[in-house]
Amino acid sequence: MGRKKLERFKENEENRNVIQPGKEIYTTIKGTWKQGFFQNDNPIVVELACGRGEFAVGLARVNADKNFIGVDIKGSRIWKGSTMAIEENLLNVAFLRAQIEQLDQYFEPKEIDELWITFPDPRPKDRDEKRRLTSPRFLEMFKVLVKVEGTVHFKTDNTALYEYTLELLKSRPDTGVLKETPDFYASQWRDDHFGIKTRYEKMFSEKGEKIKYISFRFH
């Protein structure tokens, strides 16, 4: 392991806004995010597979009345977002180092007010369908964790994953699609996200890929 990565892991251990294995809070955070960690009653917004955290931090900058949590398993990635938040004194953003498959170990039912699924691995092979973050398996978990009528946002550059997700959502009686577009930046909602882009979104956009977007709710 490189020296730089070791230094980042060390800083993650010291940074209060990183919740990860080895810290006592890692096993007690479930159900206590608002009052215990953020010490307020603002809505909880979770971004899955947040990577370097630029999207979660960007949203936190312009939404002081919400609490943001980026989830990723890679400590070297969330170090970046954690460091940015500390440097900017953003107290309304944190990072959880955990597997998304185990999300229900860190949030109580209905504890999440809003959920973002940003540019997940499309898992194109049929045998990997259950690993897609918009598959029935994950939707069932999200339905438990997200507050009733809480909004779930999904963004991708992958046409097949977009079409798969849209078809699945429209086939489920317990979900209602609020917005959907195969070209977000040509849509009426292009300014809703304040121009904030993930690293992958910037990369795909620069290559000319159209960004697809869906928002939906569980009834």
Search tags:
8 strands, 219 residues, 32% helix, alpha/beta, Rossmann fold, 2 domains, eight-stranded mixed sheet
What does the model show?
By secondary structure, this protein is α/β, with parallel strands linked by helices. The chain folds into 2 domains: 1-43 and 50-108, Vaccinia Virus protein VP39 (Rossmann fold); 113-219, Rossmann fold, CATH 3.40.50. Helix content is 32%, strand content 23%. It contains 7 helices and 8 strands, in the order αβαβαβαββαβαβαβ. The protein has an 8-stranded mixed beta sheet, with helices on both faces. Helix 1 crosses helix 4. The longest helix has 13 residues, at 75-87.
